[in-house]
Design a protein that fits this description.
This protein is of the alpha+beta class. It has helices at about 1-20, 25-35; strands at about 45-50, 55-60, 65-70. It has a three-stranded antiparallel beta sheet, covered by helices on one side. It starts with a helix and ends with a strand. This is DUF1161 domain-containing protein.
């Protein structure tokens, strides 16, 4: 039981650190690769300040949640 608690704690810390520290360009590249693999074309991905996505769909957040990646078709 104790090992499970330690493992769960480490996983949650690693997940939080991973999500908080992801550079925007890296995440944008990963999202673009996934879209391309699904055959999506004619789209743009734009990095904007959080809350500035007026005419697109937010598909990711980066740099500690201070910026968002917006998908536009």
């Amino acid at each position: 039981m104790k090992k499970w608690m330690v493992a769960l704690g480490l996983l949650s810390l690693a997940g939080t650190a991973f999500a908080a520290g992801k550079p925007c360009e890296e995440l944008k590249s990963e999202i673009a690769a996934k879209l391309d693999a699904k055959g999506v074309s004619g789209y743009t991905l734009e990095i904007v300040e959080k809350g500035a996505a007026a005419d697109g769909k937010v598909v990711g957040t980066c740099e500690g949640g201070s910026k968002e990646i917006v998908y536009k078709k």
